[in-house]
Inverse folding.
């Protein structure tokens, strides 16, 4: 699938039978965009929202895409750009047979992100936490703070050491912070009594 809309429609359809159970979303980069739009569609169509939305390594959806468009580049240039981004293992990039398999999926992902059009809608009721890499030159702290416009609930930004793929080095830190937020939220809900959904 090469559009955010198609991916989100598919996810919402698959998630529909499970919406009676509390859930949270975490998405990094393209995943943040998909998590956000999935949360919006679930809220508008099914009147349910995640208990928390965690977004990582992604400018707020209403801001312009920060990079040049890559999805239509010739294979050799596309591969060079992937190397510069440092998100695809070098062993994969240097294996032509493997790249033949992976390239269509990578292009579809870039197409989805680069052709995404933000449409204003209802603000989400759930808290949003945004994570960013201190050395990520495409996603600034200001562009992460702009996510605050999309929630009626609490909001925070947490910056960690690393580039756009800081998750690889900061995995335990990120997981720890996500678990802390979810457990704190659960304690607050338990203290306030049952809440109608």
């Amino acid at each position: 699938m090469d559009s955010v809309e198609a991916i989100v429609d598919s996810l919402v359809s698959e998630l529909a039978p499970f919406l009676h159970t509390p859930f949270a979303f975490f998405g990094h980069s393209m995943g943040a965009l998909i998590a956000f739009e999935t949360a919006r569609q679930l809220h508008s169509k099914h009147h349910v929202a995640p208990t928390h939305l965690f977004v990582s390594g992604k400018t707020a959806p209403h801001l312009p895409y920060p990079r040049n468009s890559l999805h239509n580049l010739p294979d050799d240039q596309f591969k060079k750009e992937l190397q510069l981004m440092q998100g695809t293992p070098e062993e994969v990039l240097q294996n032509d047979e493997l790249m033949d398999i992976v390239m269509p999926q990578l292009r579809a992902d870039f197409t989805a992100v680069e052709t995404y059009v933000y449409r204003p809608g209802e603000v989400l009721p759930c808290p949003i936490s945004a994570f960013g890499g201190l050395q990520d030159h495409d996603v600034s702290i200001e562009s992460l703070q702009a996510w605050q416009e999309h929630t009626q609930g609490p909001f925070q930004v947490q910056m960690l050491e690393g580039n756009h793929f800081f998750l690889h080095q900061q995995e335990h830190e990120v997981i720890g912070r996500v678990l802390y937020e979810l457990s704190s939220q659960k304690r607050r809900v338990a203290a306030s009594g049952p809440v109608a959904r």
Remarks:
- Helices lie at 4-15, 30-46, 75-85, 90-93, 96-114, 141-145, 167-192.
- The two ends are 32 Å apart (CA to CA).
- The beta strands are 25-28, 53-56, 128-133, 155-160.
